[in-house]
Amino acid sequence: MVSLDSPITIVRPHLIEFGVGTAERLGKWASEKGYGRILVISDAFNAKRVDGLALKGDVTVFADVTPEPDTANLDRVLAVANAAEADLVVGFGGGSAMDLAKLAAVLVGSSQSLQEVVGPNKVKGPRRVALAQVPTTSGTGSEAGIRALVTDPDTKAKLAVESLHMLADIAVIDPALTFTVPARITAATGVDAMAHCVEAFTNRKAHPMVDLYAIEGTRLVGKYLARAVRDGSDAEARAGLSLASLYGGFCLGPVNTAGGHALAYPLGTRWHVAHGAANALIFPHVLAFNTPAVPEKTRAVMDALGCRVSDSIQSVFDAAYAFCAELGIEMTLSGLGVPKDDLDAMADDAFAIRRLLDNNPRDLSRADIRAIYEAAF
Asked: How far apart are CA 205 and CA 228, in angstroms?
């Protein structure tokens, strides 16, 4: 594990507004900054709630964000963004909307194409438009980060762009926006937020400065996720999950995720399984696999979740699996409609995601990945 004296870079949105009822503060901020041409990037449901942001001026709404967006969805966003000539781009929704907003903010009016910015630090600055992020789920933490993902429909691979130029000028996190999220999605996105924290905490690049957020984010999920699933209008539980998601986003910049996300991605790119659901299904398998490499940190994770375990891999797996299953999450690949004859191709895809697998505390071979998919089937 990384020692205390290892260099690390910490970034945050320039302004964070957090709390129930804060959504309308975005409009006040935008007016004070003089932004009068605004593009809101959203899905169809959240597009109906844009008035709650209290934006003034010429507001254009792109309402066609798709789950696990691909390059074609991004192309449609960019066409609208170029026509709108906005001076402020707002991501309003889950991680898909916020990721597309990041990419729109750096690609509109730029000479660079998407392919030219894929990878770390390829975006040429400065950014020409302001960027605001308003999450409506508690999972991705994308509002806090500098990465954006879109799927290449030809290769079924995630294209990852990382740049400080995609850091939001303001993030407005209003837990009230999550009150309407269904229980099933609340459960899956909550485990996704936890996975960000846990994978950063047990990461080869783990750092005490990030561990602080990672273990607290895990604790918040352990305390509040089941409550929010039972009662979506529980304001305290929703706020706790919103904070956990934000903390997970803090973990993604300097440390990032690891094996769990690498194994989850093919479920989304190949079979359109929602990102949160994919991570929830994979979570107990990879946590248990990694236990021999990080036993003390694994125990800290399970303690934070309120789970009592022994030192055995099986005990960790059983407790983590039960934590997810008791939330009503589908925990088998077959139950999600993934065919067994695709497990080999999924293993190939996951094994190729070196940017995440190389962070994993225990080496995951292609055979290990295939065995996990088999066990999860």
From this structure: 32
